[in-house]
Amino acid sequence: MKVDFYTPKGRDTKILAFADVTLSEGVVVRGFRVADGSNGVFAAVPSKPITVNGEKRFWNQVAFTSNEIRERFLGELLEDYHRWRKNEAGHPPPEAKASGAEDAEEGPPF
Fold first, then answer.
1. Residue 46 in contact with residue 30, Cβ under 8 Å?
2. How many CA atoms lie within 13 A of 10 on its CB side?
3. Could you tell me if 108 and 53 are in contact, meaning their C-beta atoms sit under 8 angstroms apart?
4. Quick check: 53 and 59 in contact, CB under 8 A?
5. Distance CA 24, CA 34 (A)
6. Pairing of strands 2-6, 15-22
7. Domains and their CATH numbers in the chain
8. Rounded to an integer, what distance in angstroms lies between the CA atom of residue 41 and that of residue 64?
9. Is the pLDDT confidence value at 97 over 50?
10. What is the pLDDT of residues 57-79, one digit of tens each?
């Protein structure tokens, strides 16, 4: 698994980075997010907003065959994120709150 991270253009959200994951079979899945939540930093799968009975919901664009595989995959993604932050920024990644000071890397236009 190869992961490419991109910092978001605006720092007014809790999203710390976007990630594109290349699987060993050559499939690229774009749009993973690393975010700063109330319980710390977490990884989330790409999702798409849909409307059901007038209510906005989010539909995950990636499915896992078990919760164990999902947790292991997202855990590896977070480990890669922490290594990337340490290497790119020259300091450890944020633990709970983003400082909002680093916008050095340009990412894709989203």
1. yes
2. 3
3. no
4. no
5. 21
6. antiparallel
7. 2-89 (3.30.1120.40)
8. 21
9. no
10. 999 999 999 999 999 999 999 99
